[in-house]
Amino acid sequence: MPRTALSLPLLLATLATPLAARPASLDATLAGRTAGAPRSCLPAFLGDRGSQSFPGALLYGGSSSTIYLNRLPNCTALTPDRVVVIRSYGSGPCRGDIVEVRERFTPVPVGSCALGDFIPYSKPRHRAAQ
C-alpha cells in the first residue's frame, strides 16, 4: 500500500512563503555547496522536512547543512508556485517514487513525475582556529 506524504509543515510553509522571498534560482541555492555521491533514497525524517521546488528539480532538507537535489528534467508541471505530493512505497522518498504536482490553493493535480537519484550538496565545514 503506498504511503502518500504531504507534510502539514511543508504545505503551510509553502503557502506562507511569498514567491518573491524564495531563492531566485536553483544555482543561487546551491552556490557554495559541494555535490556528493548520489543516493537512491532519503531517510523519512529528511523527506518530512519538506521540499522546495524549482522548474524540473526538488530540494530536500533545506534547513540543514546538507540538502538533497532531485532533478526531474521531464517534469514540466513542477514550478515554484506549485506543491508536491509524494507517493512513497518505503520509509522515505526513493528513486522511482511518484511526485504528484498540484496547484497551490486547490487539490487539482496538474501532472506527475518519477523521482531520480538524490544528490547531496553540503556546505564546507569550517575548521576551528587553533
SSE diagram, text form:
Blueprint: E1 3-5, H1 8-16, H2 26-30, E2 34-35, H3 44-47, E3 51-54, E4 57-60, E5 66-71, E6 82-88, E7 98-103, E8 109-114, E9 119-122
Antiparallel strand pairs: 1-6, 2-9, 3-4, 4-5, 5-9, 6-7, 7-8
Care to describe what's here?
This is Secreted protein. Keywords: Signal. Residues 1-21 form the signal peptide. With 130 residues, this protein is an alpha+beta fold. It has one domain (3-16, 36-122). It has 3 helices and 9 strands, in the order βααβαβββββββ. It has helices at residues 8-16, 26-30, 44-47; strands spanning 3-5, 34-35, 51-54, 57-60, 66-71, 82-88, 98-103, 109-114, 119-122. The strands form 2 sheets. It has a 5-stranded antiparallel β-sheet with strand order 2-9-5-4-3, with no helix packed on it. A 4-stranded antiparallel β-sheet has the order 1-6-7-8, with no helix packed on it. β3 (51-54) and β4 (57-60) form a beta hairpin. The protein is globular and about 50 Å long. Mean pLDDT is 77; it is low at 1-20.
